[in-house]
Amino acid sequence: MEFKRDLTEVKELFSMMAKLFDMVFLMKLRHDGFFEYIQFSDRAKDLANLPDDAIGRCLQEIYYEGVASYLHDKYTTAIKNKQTLTFVGEMNLRNMDSIRMAESTLIPIVINEEQYVIAFTKDVTELENKKNEVFEQKERFFSLFTYNNDPIITTDENGSIQMVNEAFTSKFTITETGVLNKVIHELYPTLAVFEEKPKMRPVEEEVVLETSFGTMIALVKRIPIIVKDSNLGFYFIINDITSQREIIVTNKAMEDRYKKLIEISPQIIFLVRERKIVYANQVCLKVLKATLGEVIGKDISSYIKEEIGSFVKDGDIATMTTKNGEVLYITQKKSVVFFNEEKLVLYSITDITNQIAIERELDFREQYDSLTGLYNRKSLDQLIQLQISSNDHFCFVLFNIDKFKLVNDLVGTTNADTLLVEFSERLKKLSDKNFIARINGDEFVVLVPQEQSLNMFLVELQKELSHPFETEKGPIHITTSTAISKFPEHGANTEQLYLSATKAMTLAKINGARQVLYFEEEMQEVFSRKYKIENELKLSLKENHFYVAYQPKIHLKGKPIELEALIRWQHPVLGMVSPAEFIPIAEESGLIIEIGKFVIDQVCRDLQQLHKTYPHLRIAINLSPKQFLDTELELSILAVIKKYRLDPKFIEFEITETAIMIDPNKAISILNSLKNNGITIAIDDFGTSFSSFNYLKKLPVDTIKIDRSFINGIGENEKDSSLVEGLIDLAHKMNLMITAEGVETKEQLEFLKEKKCDIVQGFYFSRPEKIENIILTLDQLNVHI
């Protein structure tokens, strides 16, 4: 049929196609029979290697004869047939470093009685490559053994049978187990081809073989299996040439032979007279799960169907339905045969259901995440583009599981994958009308329409996450950080929306777990500051912009006061930079190692001076995760202690649970070594991570520190109060000291005294101070306490 359009419609169609496809062209059929360029998309000009003056010129003026003729024929066919034409071929690209395949669709259009063709092309190289890989790697042996009509035997280099195909077992009515590991020469003594030399090239032999249905004349081909120039065995392909060699027998004898061959054929066979089935072989009946009596007399369309309802052409894909309703995908060939001078149609059918399944798997992997079944990044991009083209406003909600690497380390990859699958199921449970995708590792995206209550969705998700995730290693609780960007406010395309959400996610991670942040333009300033801080860190180390402040730790049972060393950064331009801001950046960049060395050296120097007034003073130093796993950590610590002639017992190191649980066994080894040198160990921020009490029992720890987040809830939150009391009791039962940090009120102090807490620190006593002020503070606290 002809597609008649006015110029306005064509322009709109061209504009729409230019957004969806890599290349779009509008071609006009001139009166001289050539096609000239009327319009093309910007991207098409570059990819198709078109000159600047291509408009108005024909194909033959731009491309060499081979390309021009090929394209001319395709355009001509589309106009001649008045039908849309789709084909796959090589792309004529400007830079042909590698062959790229494209699927092109040509639509013939009539505008003001003139013939036009609008062509649009998309790159399908990756899909074609994947198809080739699958069929080469997975289907090679499958096709060879399952779909081959000829019997095939595989042996090792000594002739011991390793495999036989279905055609072999059907033709010779013998089970596979009946021949495996037998020597082929013993099975077929007349087969001299096995003895042929050399064994590195193919040979063939025509032999007479005895089968259950009689004598068969066969052409046996021996093909060597060669890997790395070594012969590992042989394929023996048995080609039945009996009919070729008995061509001179009477028609009746040929009919009997043909009937026998049909019966033992590995193919599904129907004989049909005027659309009615008159015969089906045993393979067919086995596949249909029916008896011969149930099949004979039925219309062939009862079993073989295609969409248009007519019989398919040879090689076309159709479906065949079994007695129990199972649908199989098949290809079939038809031929005419004569039995007793009666003309019949023979259907020879191949089951390609497995092949179709592989193609569908390819399509699935193209669109979906293989682990969770959610949309993948490519599909998400397409869905977003569809939403954008419809101008539908929506929220791009990015989820990232907090500390997922640690979860992976704790429970193993398999359990972590199980957790990801369960997380995706909980998302789907809350998002029936939303698009959900897993785009990378532990990153998930949900597209939420703005008219839907996003806040309600997030609240419901937090309820879902409050329930533990069951794994083989036991229940795991997780939290997520959430970043949100909006269309069109925060991006006009997928990349911009993702970039905006990623910036918000970065800040959410800096602020800690369970954060929910909407992207804001001001965040760009935060990132600019982050880059500036990263650049200034190294310079500040050289320029001595860092110093160590000290905060007292008060023993509630009368022992000497201790100090905790805390790094501070006073930048000449940026001013005082918070450790919460610069330490994650230093950790990420690796500069935390150098900063850590500075702190240890400065603390030991200061402690040497403080011991003149306070000879029993001990100072605690924080070790970051990256610093803790530094291979030179122990040697550098001991060297500094020796340098300032200190007793190691006056040095304590505080390590977070996170640092320990990255590699618990290695952590135990490092801590034991430090402990053996007289250094004391404390676990910082206890109770905020995923640690196991089993590991706590194994660690050579002296003290555990209760995180300030639990202390804040004392007197206000019954759960926090109970938890703090429980942790104190746990520590004492394990013969450990316990420190409560973040004490800011008298009520908190009194509670901790009552519960027999050993050490407290916080603003209630003193803020961190420089070395020159700390002595006065220590004197005052001694009097006060």
Automatic annotation (TrEMBL):
<dbReference type="Pfam" id="PF00990">
    <property type="entry name" value="GGDEF"/>
</dbReference>
<dbReference type="InterPro" id="IPR000014">
    <property type="entry name" value="PAS"/>
</dbReference>
<feature type="domain" description="EAL">
    <location>
        <begin position="530"/>
        <end position="782"/>
    </location>
</feature>
<dbReference type="InterPro" id="IPR001633">
    <property type="entry name" value="EAL_dom"/>
</dbReference>
<dbReference type="InterPro" id="IPR029787">
    <property type="entry name" value="Nucleotide_cyclase"/>
</dbReference>
<dbReference type="Pfam" id="PF13426">
    <property type="entry name" value="PAS_9"/>
</dbReference>
<dbReference type="Pfam" id="PF00563">
    <property type="entry name" value="EAL"/>
</dbReference>
<dbReference type="InterPro" id="IPR035965">
    <property type="entry name" value="PAS-like_dom_sf"/>
</dbReference>
<dbReference type="InterPro" id="IPR000160">
    <property type="entry name" value="GGDEF_dom"/>
</dbReference>
<dbReference type="InterPro" id="IPR052155">
    <property type="entry name" value="Biofilm_reg_signaling"/>
</dbReference>
<feature type="domain" description="GGDEF">
    <location>
        <begin position="392"/>
        <end position="521"/>
    </location>
</feature>
<dbReference type="InterPro" id="IPR035919">
    <property type="entry name" value="EAL_sf"/>
</dbReference>
<dbReference type="Pfam" id="PF13188">
    <property type="entry name" value="PAS_8"/>
</dbReference>
<protein>
    <submittedName>
        <fullName>EAL domain-containing protein</fullName>
    </submittedName>
</protein>
<dbReference type="InterPro" id="IPR043128">
    <property type="entry name" value="Rev_trsase/Diguanyl_cyclase"/>
</dbReference>
